[in-house]
Amino acid sequence: MRIDPFLTQRLMKSLLWSLTGLTLFFLIFIIAFISVKGLPQVTFHFLFHDIEDMGRAGGIFPTIVTTIYLTLVALAVASPLGVGTAIYLTEYTREGWVTRLIRFGAECLAGVPSIILGLFGFVLFVIKLNLGWSMLSGGLSLAIMVLPTIIRTSEEALKAVPREYHDVCYSLGIGKWRTITRVVLPCALPGIMTGIVLSIGRSIGETAVVLFTAGASLRLPATLFDSGRSMAVHFYILAREGLSMPNAYGTAAILIISILLINISAYSLMQRFIRRYS
C-alpha cells in the first residue's frame, strides 16, 4: 500500500512541531514554577547579606561569591587547555592513533559521573596535594569536568573554518601560528565561546564535585584557599534538610536567572562576532 508523500510530510511536520512544543512547554514550566516560588524571596537583603541560622534566615551573598570564584578558576584552567588541545588536534597533527586516543580519552572523561570526579578531586587535590576544601580544589576539579566539552566544541569550530583560508595565508607567506591566531581563531571564536558558555552553565549548576572539593562552609571566602558553599550546594542542603524551602526556591531562582543571562549574553556576543567575521 502506497502512502501519500504529502500526507507523510504533514504528519512528520506535525510530529516535529509537537515534540518541539513539548520541549518548550517543559522549559517554560520549570522556569515559571521556580520563578513563582522563588522570586518573591529575592530581595536586596537576600542577595547581599550573609547566611544566618544555617540558611533558615539571612541571604546568599557568600554562595554567590563562591560560585563566581569556582567558575573563574575552572575556566582559567580549562579554557586554555581545551582550546590548545583542539588547536593541536586540528592544526598540528594528522589523523592517526594519537588523535583517536586523545578524542577517546576526552569522550571517556565526559562520561564519568560527577560524583566520581568529585571523589577523584577530593583524593588528589584535597588530600594528596594538601589543598584542603578550598576554592582552588573545587575549581581544579570543575576544570577537569568541563575540559571535554571545551575540547570537542573548540575542535568542531576549528574544523568548520574553510581550508581555503589556510591556503590563502600560506600563499601570502604567512606562518602557521600567525594564520591560526589572526584568521582561524577569530572565525572559530563563536563555536569556541559556545563550549565555554556550556562549561559556565555546568560549573554553576554542579553540586557533587563542589561538595567533595570546595566544602560547604557558610563563610565568605577571602582567598582561593578558603572553603565555601556554592549556590547549587546551598540549594541542595536547604532542600534536602528541609531547613527553608522558601530560601531554597529563592536560590534556585537566582541560579536559573544567572544561567539564562549568561546564555543570552553569550548568544549576543557570538552574533556580533559572526557579523564581524562573516
UniProtKB/TrEMBL annotation:
Subcellular location: Cell membrane
Lineage: superkingdom: Bacteria
Organism: Desulfobacca acetoxidans (strain ATCC 700848 / DSM 11109 / ASRB2)
One MF term in the entry's GO annotations: phosphate transmembrane transporter activity
Descriptive protein name: Phosphate transport system permease protein PstA
Cellular compartments per GO CC: plasma membrane
PROSITE patterns linked: ABC_TM1
Residue ranges of the TM segments: 15-39, 59-89, 101-127, 133-151, 183-201, 248-270
Family in the record: Belongs to the binding-protein-dependent transport system permease family. CysTW subfamily.
